[in-house]
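[READ THE FOLD]
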Amino acid sequence: MISSFSMLSILKRTLLLYGTVKIDDLVEEVHKHMLANSSLEQIKTRYVLPILRNNPSFVEVENGNNVWQLTKGNKLNDVIYDILKKYRSPLSERQILNRLAKEKHLATLSMVIDLKNDPRFSDIEGGKYWILTEWIVINEYARSILLKLKSSLSEKELVEKVIETYRVDPELALFLPMFDESFIKKDGRWTLKKFVERKSKLRASQIDRLYNSLQEAGESLTSDELTASVFNIPAQATDIDECLAIDPRFLRVNGKWSLKKDDFIPQNQPIINKIESIQKPIASTEQQITTSQESTSKIVDSVNFEIPISSKIQEEEQNRFTKSDKVEKETTNQSISEQTAWEKKEKRYLKERHFRIVHNETGHTYESIFGEYLKDAKSIIIEDPYIRVAHQIQNLTRPCELIVTAGTIMDIKLITGYKDDEQKTNVTKSFLQLKNSLANYGINFNFEFSKTLHDRQIQLDNGWVIKIGRGLDFYRAPESRFSVGAIDMKFQYCLETNVDIFKIEDK
């Protein structure tokens, strides 16, 4: 769901998708997409309930049961429904009126249209534009396709790929990149903005890897082929073209990179040429040795002189070389040992981190954010007021799995909040299940509830503190249980939040 949907549109689209929905589930849906810093009770009483009760788009299934569904809509808007269906594009109210005047031959544009109170219509960009609620906005699917392909596609190609891959109804599929900041159009093709704006500067060692890859391939490759095979990222996310253009080893012809004549090994002769390159110096050396031996033999013969070499001299020479080899080996072993110790020291050295997770960004997991800081910790305290509903408890389970993997933490304490006694009872049952599961791994899990807790943080007894603005619940909801990101969280889209990791004391 694109971020420019209003709360009214989120409620309409959720009810259209599921038919009938409980009030608490609607509140959760709003909480996932907006007002993440507000409590569920605030969202329910201040926003969701007033909309449901005052907008004729919604009706309670049974009076007082707080289960809601959509109404059928206003028949006066049928003609507007047909207009949007025909143009298959977001339209402003002015654009809708213009098309009505043109197609229905209306003499005036003074008529007022009311789409807010009709469940068939959803607004975006704060009511500036309207679309049909039934349309499936495929932005999330398109983002997954581009992330997988790591390249750009025309709009037609991208929509066709989404329809084919995710079996979306082509009559309902709607791509809205103009209302989604994660997309950008370049040379008539759509790609992800982060691939273009966040260019990774290639290091010398990475350019050498590109060089080796071209040697092994034995053929010319495009920039996308190179970066995809070597770094698993699209070329647009790097400065590969700039780097290779100034490197004398590379040559670009017809949009493909190859190695210059002295460096490039053709595809059909890589092994032969390598063997020849090795054989030539060997043959030259053998010839020099033979010539030297013949020359020495002639000199000895010419003077008819034989040089005696005693066994004692041979033994001394052998001992000298053996001692030299031993010293060299010991020096090498010491160097390797020192390098290994340095690497281990570097691995242990953790730095403070302060960064922002951008809206709709992927690639962030609990392990990538704070996994390395769990090292040598024995206990952990998690403070998060919103570990209350199923998906939030599941979010808690994932770092618990990370803690089990770390293998050093033996005590986990959770401090969280609750809405009412009923919710507290239900959550307690889930926490006890988690407690029993962790006990199988020798880990103690304790929890307590607080009505006043607001801040979120994770504190380790090794001194490190992890503060995530949204707590553990910084992921957007996946499109479905069967979409990419539902299992592997690195593919899950994130909500915008700040992350601060710092040490409060040296231990």
User: Anything to note?
Assistant: Residues 354-503 form a domain with the Endonuclease; Chain A fold (CATH 3.30.870.30). The longest helix spans residues 311-348. The chain is about 45% helix and 15% strand. The CA atoms of residues 127 and 194 lie 28 Å apart.
